[in-house]
Write a structure and sequence with these properties.
With 415 residues, the chain is mainly beta. The protein has two helices and 21 strands.
């Protein structure tokens, strides 16, 4: 009831200052057709995960009222529809699943409201949030995006500094319509199951210039874990046609309060070095994990660094990972077409309950994407991702050897 009163108050205020509120508003409809096909190459209770669905995401972003503290309102309505899902192969994360029958829902939907206020270059948003920081990240890797409920402040009032502060108490997962407590990821038995309704995060990024920045971010999942990250991004011109792009992050992870998930003791170096020459980009990256436990992160999403594994997270205890990647931009032949190939391998994995103390995993991934650059179909994007993954974990592990294909066709109307 209180939320409705606040929204109505904003609308009433907005009506009196309608010029900017409505004239500066943005409307978009994002349609997403998504096919997910993961086939396990070893014997498993579930031989494959296959789901196909169609999603629609409508977004309204108002302008701001012409008041000393400017006010606005954002609305997001999302819906997903099953095109194919067999109960023997559900669980890909595109659709809600009945825990008893394993049947995928025929359809699902949700509406999110976000109240916003702005003073000078400081903006506050409250309600449905989609954070984008190195410590909390709203995942869009399935049909509908993951969202959080809370309040977030962003400010550029300090010269050359982007500041973010936030608090969230609930998460709406990608294959759900309900807000629930925020949990730590427990895949491969890395941590005990634990949840909280109190998460604080914040940090800053300092821009030395348009090519160089450094920052610090931190998050606290109350009574579960704390995470701190130092980061640096640069673009270094080696000559007129060749650039070096280093991306560096150093994470410190510790248990918090009552330690509901058990001990958390981890440091992680995530470093990637890209060499870009015209249409070619060659990258070398590595993750090096220290401490007695795995790297902690929020369940239902990913970690925001250079390595985006399809079939694994590469974040097991004591794991060392190296990755090589090649990107090619076909703009000289087909503008809008880009391709990628990547090989990643993790060694020295410590999972004594899942096969040993010196385990390995590896993944080879391919990605090709075409974005229509102009004309009536501008806004259409077609993407295919394929990977094959292998490890020497026991059959009880969450990550199993597989071959995986993801196909996506997205189209966005802006009106």
């Amino acid at each position: 009831m209180r939320r409705k009163v606040v929204i109505c108050s904003i609308l009433a205020c907005s009506y009196a200052n309608a010029d900017h509120f409505f004239n500066d508003s943005k409307n978009s409809l994002w349609t997403r057709n998504y096919y997910y096909d993961r086939n396990y190459t070893e014997i498993s209770n579930t031989p494959a995960l296959k789901e196909w669905a169609q999603g629609f995401i409508y977004s309204f972003e108002s302008g701001y009222t012409d008041t000393p503290v400017a006010l606005g309102l954002d609305i997001q309505a999302a819906a997903g529809f099953k095109l194919h899902a067999d109960r023997e192969q559900t669980g890909a994360g595109l659709l809600p699943i009945d825990k008893t029958t394993r049947e995928a829902a025929d359809s699902y939907g949700e509406i999110g409201w976000t109240i916003k206020a702005k003073y000078q270059q400081t903006e506050m948003k409250a309600g449905t949030l989609m954070p984008f920081t190195p410590v909390i990240f709203s995942s869009r890797a399935r049909l509908l995006p993951q969202t959080f409920r809370g309040v977030e402040f962003k400010s550029k009032d300090l010269e050359k500094t982007n500041l973010t502060l936030g608090y969230v108490d609930k998460v709406n997962q990608r294959d759900s319509t309900n807000f629930e407590n925020i949990r730590i990821s427990t895949v491969n038995g890395k941590f005990k199951a634990a949840e909280t309704d109190s998460v604080y995060y914040g940090g800053f990024q300092y821009l030395f210039d348009k090519h160089n920045s450094a920052g610090f971010y931190s998050i606290k999942l109350d009574d579960i874990y704390q995470q701190h990250v130092f980061l640096s991004n640069s673009v270094i011109a080696l000559n007129e046609s060749l650039s070096l792009i280093p991306d560096l992050k150093f994470y410190i992870n510790r248990a918090d309060g009552k330690k509901l998930a058990g001990e958390v003791d981890n440091e992680l170096i995530a470093a990637n070095f890209s060499f870009k020459h015209d249409v070619h980009t060659f990258s070398v990256g590595f993750l090096k994990s220290y401490g007695d436990t795995a790297f902690p992160y929020i369940a239902g999403g990913e970690v925001l660094f250079f390595l985006d594994g399809l079939s694994t997270d590469f974040l097991n205890p004591r794991e060392d990972v190296y990755s090589i990647r090649y990107d090619y931009d076909f703009k000289n032949y087909i503008p809008g077409l880009k391709g990628m190939v990547r090989y990643s391998q993790g060694d020295h994995i410590y999972l004594p309950t899942l096969g040993g103390t010196n385990l390995k995993e590896k993944e080879t991934a391919f990605d090709i994407q075409y974005n229509v650059p102009e004309g009536r179909l501008k806004g259409l994007a077609i993407r295919a991702r394929y990977a094959f993954y292998d490890n020497d974990f026991s059959s009880a592990a969450a990550f199993k050897p597989d071959k995986e294909l993801r196909l996506g066709i997205d189209y966005t109307w802006n009106f």
